[in-house]
Amino acid sequence: MSGTSGTKLRAGLIGLGMMGRHHARVLGSLDGVELVAVADPGGDAHGAANGRPVLGGVEELIAAGIDFAVVAVPTVFHAETGLALAEAGVHTLIEKPLAPDVESATQLTETFERAGLVGAVGHIERFNPSLQNLRKRLEHGELGEVFQVVTRRQGPFPNRIADVGVVKDLATHDIDSTAWVTRQTYTSISAHTAYRSGREHEDLIAMTGRLADGTVVNHLVNWLSPMKERVTIVTGEKGCFVADTLTADLTFYANASAPTIPTWEAMQAFRGVSEGDMVRFAIPKPEPLRTELEAFRDAVLDVDGGRDRVVSMRQGLQVVRVAEAALDSAAKGTTVEL
Hints:
The chain is an alpha/beta fold. It has 2 domains: 9-125 and 289-312, NAD(P)-binding Rossmann-like Domain (Rossmann fold); 126-286 and 320-337, Dihydrodipicolinate Reductase, domain 2 (2-Layer Sandwich), CATH 3.30.360. It has helices at 18-27, 58-63, 78-87, 102-115, 129-139, 166-182, 288-301, 306-309, 313-332, and strands at 9-14, 33-39, 54-55, 68-71, 91-95, 119-122, 146-154, 186-194, 204-211, 216-222, 229-236, 239-244, 249-256, 274-280, 336-337. The strands form 2 sheets. Strands 14-13-12-11-7-10-9-8-15 form a 9-stranded mixed β-sheet. A 6-stranded parallel β-sheet has the order 3-2-1-4-5-6, sandwiched between helices. Strand 11 and strand 12 form a beta hairpin. The longest helix has 20 residues, at 313-332. The protein is globular. Residues 132-241 form the GFO/IDH/MocA-like oxidoreductase domain. GO terms for molecular function: nucleotide binding. This is Oxidoreductase domain protein.
């Protein structure tokens, strides 16, 4: 690896679509990193290269002499691109999902682990300030016991996606962030899908699952809605947190200690919760993609806990496994145990 103390890490990027052009912008201004070349067989339609060489594919990118690469090609090409980079000894971050199926995700994970390389997955929601702050508050016990996690992720169809459905494109965000925020794994999943837009893949899913500690989770995901929504609600014994990952806002709704309204005599035996204070936290809001790429840079350098901050390929494999279980559940009409 040519990146050593006092010299910049040489970075390469393959894939210059919607996500790739943002990677190019951030990598081009990241401390300690030099973006030496970009690659896309279709050229640079968005002008993301900013004067850098635009190469035809992964082999040319490897030949440019890079320490690490970011892969932002369509999901169906993740495995072949990632394996070529692993063989060349290049640390790699692959955009989510890690791969289109469990088999190729497993192959990628094991190949990078055997080679001793940093293999990471671009699950960017982990780096959203609202979810990072929420995770710390849950860890500190501010909600007490967690009962339920509900996520809603809906919006219009993204024309950039042709090779996967809404589960692997969008639901993978919520699968990963829910497991990460709660520090739990999924033990079961049940799902229903719909095909409403005439495309090959599903465009709507409703999922219900259970985590290892018994927490119930619900994910509602579609790309059929004109309203864009990205919200995570965590309910527990002390109230609930609402994280809006579009605005990076985090709000806490506390349970009040007020007694049940006395005139409702039939309700007197029920000791429920009532509405208490609402607090919206003032939190710093750095760009999640920059935070993610800084963590990946630090992981490659093995400094500042970078390897603990990135989403490892093994974690990315677990996400693919849950996503496939959800699709399997929907196809068979059964609950899938994980």
